[in-house]
Design a protein that fits this description.
Layout (H helix, E strand, L loop, with lengths): L21 H8 L4 H18 L3 E7 L9 H9 L5 E4 L1 H11 L5 E2 L6 H6 L2 E4 L2 E4 H14 L7 E2 L1 H11 L5 H8 L3 E2 L7 H10 L5 E2 L4 H10 L7 E7 L2 H14 L3 E8 L22 E11 L2 H12 L1
Parallel strand pairs: 1-2, 1-9, 2-7, 6-8, 9-10, 10-11
Antiparallel strand pairs: 3-5, 4-5
């Protein structure tokens, strides 16, 4: 039995010119092959998701994006209301709060040995370092802030919202609270922020239970049980945030209708971070007719290009 021949399109080649915009650059990527073409496809999916008024739009964030210099990109996504909900790691919030409390991350040459960095209390994240001092300043700031919060058991999402309402500096929690965008953090204990909460909660009534985020996420996304309602996600880095949303979609029986993934991980070892978004179809986590894109790229390259093109 002969198979139907694929419809072939000629490679037209990308053009570049002086003063071209990011939007025009992404248009030209459509003429390329490989990852460039997939990034152009990602923008198409993101535009369709943004224009779908019946779609609840999430971003899931994992990895060292704040030390990597993407803080303002994430802030812009919130300020421009490109998303309705955020799912991220405790480490992401930790690094963002370190900067909110006045400390910084720094570039470091590869020629500096890790032993030398240790002696100087500098903690390496590839070619960036975060000083140990930053964690001390974070502890002082948080331990002064915690008594101002409701002294009760909260979900991680409610806790982060309460933190955001107390802060007067630009950071993820503050911007999201101002825009009434919920932040879910199922991996909160796996961070210095989570450790600080644990220390405070041993002597106070304030408790944070990240397991309660499951109910908060389901209520926020699927409580109305509207058949017209759709869900989409920009997945950056994979990890727990990616799976937390995908699992919720599976449980609710409402597979994702849009999914764009930016990752450097590989699928061969079976980990969730490297799994293509289409793999989620077999689990009922992604709709078989969903618009998808799988961009294998460093987020510090692909995410700014993608978000800038949408603006």
């Amino acid at each position: 039995m002969s198979k139907k021949k694929p419809k072939l399109k000629k490679v037209k080649h990308a053009s570049i010119w002086k003063d071209m915009t990011v939007n025009e650059l992404l248009d030209e990527y459509q003429h390329t092959g490989f990852t460039g073409k997939e990034l152009a496809n990602a923008r198409k999916v993101m535009k369709a998701m943004a224009e779908d008024k019946d779609c609840i739009k999430f971003v899931t964030l994992a990895g060292a994006l704040i030390p990597g210099g993407l803080k303002k990109v994430i802030h812009t996504m919130i300020e421009e209301e490109l998303i309705d909900g955020i799912i991220l790691t405790g480490a992401m919030l930790t690094h963002d709060l370190i900067e909110a409390f006045g400390e910084d991350h720094f570039h470091v040459p590869h020629t500096v040995t890790d032993y030398e960095l240790q002696k100087q209390e500098l903690n390496r994240i590839y070619n960036v370092v975060v000083p140990t001092k930053g964690y001390r300043v974070l502890e002082d700031g948080l331990q002064a802030l915690f008594p101002l919060l409701p002294q009760e058991t909260m979900s991680a999402s409610k806790f982060i919202n309460e933190i955001g309402k107390q802060l007067n500096v630009k950071c993820i929690a503050k911007l999201a609270a101002d825009k009434n965008i919920p932040i879910f953090c199922p991996s909160l204990p796996d961070s210095i922020l989570g450790f600080q909460i644990w220390m405070f909660s041993n002597l106070h009534k304030l408790k944070v239970n990240p397991a309660l985020d499951q109910q908060d996420l389901l209520d926020f996304t699927w409580k109305n049980d509207d058949d017209k309602m759709k869900v989409g996600a920009l997945i950056v880095g994979g990890g727990v945030p990616k799976h937390f949303l995908a699992l919720a979609a599976q449980i609710a029986g409402k597979a994702l209708d849009y999914a764009v993934q930016i990752t450097m991980d590989r699928p061969e070892h079976g980990g969730v971070s490297g799994a293509s978004v289409k793999e989620g179809i077999s689990w009922g986590k992604v709709n078989e007719k969903a618009k998808t894109a799988n961009v294998v790229s460093d987020a510090t390259i692909a995410l700014p290009l993608l978000i800038a093109s949408l603006l």
